[in-house]
Amino acid sequence: MNIYNYIDDYGIYSFKEKKFNEVDAVIFSFLSYANFENVLEKNQKCSIQEIGRRHLGIFPGEDRNVMAVRDGNKLLRYLKDTKRYKDCLISHYEYIGNEDIQFGAISIEYTRNHVFISFEGTDELFSGWKENFILSYKFPTMSHKKAIDYLNKYYTFSTKKIIVGGHSKGGNLALAAAMDANFFVRSRIEKIYSGDGPGLLDNEYKSKKYEKVKKKYIHIIPDYSFVGLLLNHVNDKVVKSSNKGILAHNIIYWEVEGSHFKKAPLSPLSKELDRELKKWFSRYGEEDKMQFVKNLDFIFKKANIHSITEIKEKNRLILNLIYESKEMDSNTKKILIDFFLILVKCFSSTKKEELKQFVSNLFKIKKREE
Question: Residue 359 pLDDT more than 60?
Answer without folding.
Answer: no
